[in-house]
Design goal:
Rossmann fold; globular; alpha/beta; binds adenosine monophosphate
Length: 225
């Protein structure tokens, strides 16, 4: 199974991606996690990526497309994968089509902006594993500690309110148009710019409101009809 998860930052893509990856035995490819890893490298590229992420802007399409092309060519992706955070622009979506990457489902998780601001400002992550918690909605067993390793949880630098609002603006401008793009592709099976036909993905949409389990159930009931 090959999935794309679409949705604003904080809609719950990462949490649902962990669940779907375990349920369908496919790797989760979270471009944000890959970039956070790359940003730790003390190289000019690492430094550049770190500054872009801090500002809430997007990393360039060229870098992202190469990164994802390389990742999905690895043997563990042969039976499927789940893209969390990619594509984020029309050019990235087009690159998947041009490279004839088959996708079975595009799943959109919808949440209003104000709810997102509330959610992200309480989000905590376990950086080494990418596990995600929320101080109110999905708290760890022991406050401030990862359930599995007991290590400290952190707030992401780009989860500060000002950056969240910036990231939401970027989402509405650059990524949300992909909802219509994929809806249209699912309907017509045709993308204007790429004259290559791939089996169009099915488009599913779900409200991201409710508990993590409730959203899990809604997704499974759409996928396993
Ligand atoms: P995320 O963890 O998905 O919220 O991503 C964190 C940050 O990484 C974003 O705000 C962007 O700066 C960058 N990023 C992640 N995925 C992409 C992508 N597909 N295209 C461009 N920038 C990205």
């Amino acid at each position: 199974m090959r999935f794309i998860l679409l949705g604003a930052p904080g809609a719950g893509k990462g949490t649902q991606a962990d669940f779907l990856s375990a349920r369908y035995h496919i790797p989760k490819i979270a471009t944000g996690d890959m970039l956070r890893q790359a940003a730790k490298e003390e190289t000019p590229l690492g430094e550049k990526i770190k500054n872009i992420m801090r500002s809430g802007e997007l990393v360039s399409d060229d870098i992202m497309i190469e990164l994802v092309k390389d990742r999905i060519s690895k043997p563990d992706c042969q039976n499927g994968f789940l893209l969390d955070g990619f594509p984020r622009t029309r050019a990235q979506a087009q690159a998947l089509i041009e490279n004839q990457v088959p996708i079975d489902y595009v799943l959109e998780i919808r949440v209003e902006d104000e709810e997102i601001v509330k959610r992200l400002s309480g989000r905590l992550i376990h950086a080494p594993s990418g596990r995600i918690y929320h101080s109110i909605y999905n708290p760890p067993k022991i406050a401030g500690q990862d359930d599995v390793t007991g290590e400290l949880l952190l707030q992401r630098e780009d989860d500060k309110e000002e950056t969240i609002r910036k990231r939401l603006g970027v989402y509405h401008e650059q990524t949300q148009p992909l909802v219509d793009f994929y809806k249209n592709l699912a309907k017509t099976g045709f993308s204007n710019e790429a004259h290559i036909s791939v089996q169009p993905p099915k488009f599913l949409t779900v409200s991201g409101l409710g508990t993590v389990d409730e959203v899990n159930h809604k997704i499974v009931s759409l996928l396993e009809v």
